[in-house]
# Entry
Amino acid sequence: MNLLDEQWQKLQPLLLGGYNDPGATGRDNRLFLQSVLWIVAHKAKWSDLPAEFGKWQTSYMRFRRWNHADVWRQLAGSVNDDKELRTMLDAIVAFGDEHTQRAKRRLTMRNNKIAYNSALASDRQPQSGASWATGMVPGGSQNWVWLVSGK
# Structure
């Protein structure tokens, strides 16, 4: 996927971070858009982005911010007259949706792990009446590994 000059002329006024926008400006919106299209077309990791597109971390963070703000979907909805450009932007929207779903799954797994570990920690606290000297583990079982490691 390569962005043509005519397509760029349609997108340029719609993009965030232009020179006329208040606040921070993107160094090169076209290069950024090309980098996202490269990632989507090659189904590559961000760290595999060629150096000609700049630092991959910068492109990735900017992609995440734009994805979170739903910029890709808004851009795709505003260029209905160019089928090829719409297809490119729809591919970016789909990639962004997959990215969001993976992030949600990771967050859920992380929260589940934290909850599980905190539940384990509360089970490991000595109960009143449990004798540490005799090897009684909370829950009533005797486990020498737990006595040695405290886990």
Notes: The helical segments are 5-11, 29-42, 56-68, 71-78, 83-124, 144-149. The chain has one domain: 5-113. The first helix runs from residue 5 to 11.
